[in-house]
Amino acid sequence: MRARDWSDTNAVAAAATGCQVCGRQGKLQRAHIIGRARYRGRPQGDDVAMLCVCCHGLYDAHRLDIYPHLTSAQRARAVVVAGGAGMALRRLMGARWRTAPGSLLDQRLRELEDG
Q1: What are residue 90's phi and psi, to 5 degrees?
Q2: pLDDT at position 18, please?
Q3: Strands (E) located in the chain
Q4: Which residues contact 81 (CB under 8 A, 6 or more apart)?
């Protein structure tokens, strides 16, 4: 198995002062905003969020909405990597349900599409 190349995310890791979600300081982990299977090449700085162990575990289990905690650049990159705003939001919000009119997912999808 080949080692992961995190070199493009080192600046993000060095600048992090705490978990992007809860603010906890200490040992942080690079969490892929969109699953690694969707990437071509190595991850860029905006492909990862710096999360504490607890938040990273919840996000990987699709139980944590990180959308409000991401930068606009991270959100935009997630749309590109996921292949569309709907797919990105379903992952970022930890949601696996379909978009219902008026739902939180629907509102955020409209925000992203409106720019």
Answers
A1: -60, -35
A2: 93
A3: 29-32, 48-51
A4: 33, 34, 38, 39, 47, 88
